[in-house]
Sequence to fold (63 residues):
Amino acid sequence: MSSLTLRRLIVWGVSAVLGILLSILILTFFLPAVNPSPTAGPVSVQDYGIQYFFWTAFPLTLV
Fold:
């Protein structure tokens, strides 16, 4: 494998991790903040749903 391919794989891996972390932060902090209910708390990935989390995280990972 060339060094360029290795660099691209590393960048892709780092961006995937950052996309997943950003999605978790959005679920935990942003969604409860914009919820009109005053008693809204953090949302876990299990409460949100794995399938919904994937479709939230996947576009952020590609960016």
Summary: The first helix runs from residue 3 to 34. Residues 3-62 form one domain.
